[in-house]
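Usage

Read records sequentially. Each one opens with the input sequence:
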Amino acid sequence: MSRPSARRTLENRIRRLGFSRVAGVDEVGRGSLAGPVVAAAVVLSVNCHIKGLRDSKLLTPASRERLYDEIVKYSAAWALGVAEASEIDRVNVHRAGLRAMSRAVRMLVPVPDFVLVDGFKIPDLLVPQKAVVKGDRSCAAIAAASIVAKVTRDRQMRGLHVVDPRYGFDRHKGYATKAHLSALVRFGYSPLHRHSFRPSALFDRI
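and closes with the structure output:
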């Protein structure tokens, strides 16, 4: 059974209040042991509806790639923000994720006049915003942002695999699979890993 697509109900409600450029924002990579957190901000075009937008985790890789191409081609605006592993180690992953989302919003041209964020409000953002719990499953703009962020990060992790192929980043994208944990036991943490992510319970699963 196909999963329902995210809707524009919330964006349309906000537009009726007088806001014309409504951005959806989401990030991916929070739970990974390596690589960056990547955030995206997307302003969907009012006149062009992209079918099948939903939480990126509910899509196949091929569907994500197809929707990514449509989003970047037909959206009114989109932008990315990144927090690398070193920054995550320095400030913690929650703050790094908020920073990445803030960077994505600030990179949008033109600047949005309202922002819908998956899960958390973004600190010090000088634009009206609303945090939407599980927004990537209900709000089309946030779902679009989750797809752009996911495809971008997966491509980056495949690039990191070329830099250091020992860990299999192209397969697990830095998450704690058994193969990744086995590689960590064998090779230790690399400069691409988040050195603050060392929960001992993970290694008990090997």
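Summary fields computed downstream for this record:
- The CA atoms of residues 159 and 170 lie 8 Å apart.
- Residues 9-158 form a domain with the Nucleotidyltransferase; domain 5 fold (CATH 3.30.420.10).
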